Amino acid sequence: MIRARTVTLALIAALAVAAPLAAAPVSEETVHEIGAQLRCVVCQSLSVADSPSETANQMRGIIRERLAAGDSPEQVKAYFVEKYGLWILLAPPRQGFNLLVWVVPFAALGAGLVLVVLLVRRWSRRPAGASPAPDDAMRARIHREMAEREP
Question: Where are the alpha helices (DSSP H) in the chain?
């Protein structure tokens, strides 16, 4: 009886230790998707998914470990934001002051398009080649200057 109980406890303990190891494997596609949203702290212009640096490789390992531990992708990103700040995100969140990063380029593009339309309208309303006819004083000046140029 005691032997059966010991075997049962040992089996439960083995299952408890093996259960996390037998958890669903983490998809490399998910690791890549999360890594593509995070900036490499060494390269700074590349994402963690694209960077060949050892630090990026370690960060991908942390992503993999946290996903295997049951964290959601948002929780993994929150972990890195907590550790490095909002700078770590390649795309800033669309809220607060960071909203300017998303709005200003489109506003500038719209203002540029309005300016181009206004200029094209103004240029198209001008009569082509129509200059005011010279008056008598201007004709006299032109004839005088032409006469001075002839030898």
Answer: 2-21, 28-35, 54-68, 73-84, 99-125, 136-149
User: What angle (nearest 5°) sits at the alpha carbon of residue 96, between those of residues 72 and 73?
Assistant: 10
Residues 76 and 151: their CA atoms lie apart, in Å, by 90
Fold of 2-91: Helicase, Ruva Protein; domain 3 (1.10.8)
Cβ count within 10 A of residue 20: 10
Angle at which helices 54-68 and 73-84 cross, to 10°: 130
pLDDT in tens, 79-136: 999 999 888 988 877 777 778 878 899 999 999 999 999 999 888 887 666 677 788 9
84 CB-near residues (< 8 Å, 6+ apart): 41
Enter the pTM of the model: 0.54
